[in-house]
Amino acid sequence: MYSLLLTIIYLAFVSLGLPDSLVGSGWPVMHEDLGVPVSFAGIITMIIAGGTIVSSLLSERLTRRFGAGLVTAVSVGLTAGALLGFSVSDAFWMLCLWAVPFGLGAGAVDAALNNYVALHYAARHMNWLHSFWGVGASISPFIMGWALSSGAGWSTGYQVVGLIQVALTAVLLLSLPLWGRAALRRRQDTEENGEEALDDGHVPLAHALRIPGVPLMLVAFFAYCALESTSFLWASTYLVQHRGVAPETAATFGALFLLGMTGGRFLAGFFADRIGDRPLIRGGFTVVGLGVAMMLLPVGAGNDLLALAGLVVAGLGCAPVYPAIIHSTPTNFGRDNSQAIIGIQMAAAYTGSTFAPPLFGVLGSWAGMWLFPLFVGVLAVLGLLMSERLNRQVAQRTG
Asked: Is the same domain home to 162 and 258?
């Protein structure tokens, strides 16, 4: 039963990643068809991010009221409806309208699933599940590329991914009895082992924020997601404009950052249980710092070889940080508080990934793209310092 449910959760994580790359991969054609400036993509992503932040903060109430299974199914269904809405949109205002359920669905399912896995599964599964998110995020640009190259148009790309999400919604709805049986079995195991059951009471946002260490963790998570999203958006531009790398080479290594993250999470799953969450977080931020240093050093063939390798190393360093922070939440702050805190974590994550890239865009336009590795390096140091302070605080509280 647990194995079948875990398989369904893996599919749900693929569905989480599928929509994330669609706007970016289709927008060069979409903005021309809709007659809007290319910069209007930022409006769409801001609306989506706003929805994810709101639903992340509400996820604790929703999950306690309806259960992780139903929240996941309905959230994926919302995302599916939004994608199909995108596929029939012929005006920019329609995209803005459909972006609302797009964001609301993404935030709720992210928080509900992450907390469920953090509570009930080992660290290796958290890494592998987030690796499957990368699989979904890597598949959707190929779908959009096929739709555009075949002449079917960007709307077909959204339609195909939307129909995949509809099928996943159906699977999740059919699996609801399985979630219920798994919850019943866990309650029985808890009683038999004499363990304390989870408290079903609501944890208010203000109370969660006052728990010692939560602000430190939120800053660390904000910093990580900010450096990840900034690297996604600006790494290729940095390589082209500052290091003189050919655009096609920069695009390839920009993609390798995501692939390095996905592959790194898969590999981390094999030793995550033995190493533990804290060393994974510490090591991940440290390896990101190593990658940044490699990007800063002007050595290599044509002064770019080490910079290209450094980008891949930074992607590998990013791999275990996000899953380990999430998985350590019940241990650091208590199982009863984890759903509320993970919801706040998701809000911090989306805030960082939304506002950091445009902030760097302003800084890079003002001072130059040479700032990119320094910007990422500062975020990595901030994340490492906050996570280490959290570790000391937790050790003092529990020791």
From this structure: no
| Torsion sign across C-alpha atoms 56, 346, 264, 120 | negative
Give me the numbers of helices (H) and strands (E) for the chain, helices first please: 18, 0
Beta carbons of 324 and 281 less than 8 angstroms apart: yes
Are 181 and 90 found together in one domain?
A: yes
Q: What is this structure's pTM?
A: 0.80
Q: Are 45 and 102 in contact (CB under 8 A)?
A: no
Total number of residues shown for the chain: 399
Residue 290 domain-assigned (yes or no): yes
What digits encode the pLDDT tens for the residues 104-163? Answer: 888 777 777 777 777 777 778 788 878 888 788 778 778 888 888 888 888 998 999 999
Residues 136, 257, single domain; the answer is no
Q: Give the count of beta carbons closer than 10 Å to the beta carbon of residue 397.
A: 10
Assign residue 63 a region (left: φ > 0; alpha: ψ between -120 and 50; beta: otherwise). alpha
Angle at 143 between CA 139 and CA 149, to 5 degrees: 140
Torsion sign (Cα): 375, 381, 384, 387: negative
Domain identity same for 187 and 227: no
Q: Domain range spanning residue 283?
A: 205-398
Residues 215, 272, single domain; the answer is yes
Q: Are residues 212 and 148 in the same domain?
A: no
